[in-house]
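Worked example

This section walks through a single chain of length 112. The input is the sequence exactly as stored; nothing has been trimmed or padded.
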Amino acid sequence: MGENKEYMTHPDELGCIHISEDVLASIAAGAVAEVEGISGLMNVAAKSGVKGVRLAVDEDGAVVDLYVMIRYGYAIPEVADKLQSAVSGAVESMTGFEVKAVNVHVGGVCFQ
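Given that input, the structure is written out below as tokens.
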């Protein structure tokens, strides 16, 4: 496997499935883009290479931290709730791995 990368491993009857944290971060970022009221992801350094998404991966599942900008006029708690549901649903349905938490960090409001 690649160096300095975390992988989630799912044992299967024919072998193991290894999914890198880069893939998980990309899935999360894609789900973020689908939520109304999100202006974008913030530039936050992450080892996954996907801006605005940080992951903590272990054998029990993943914790996803999202750093987002909210569009002006949207209720932050409602958008954050939709964001948590969308990201956990996307990651769990596409990978089969449990998402233990989705932490939403709102870094600002976009007026455009």
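What to look for: The longest helix spans residues 76-95.
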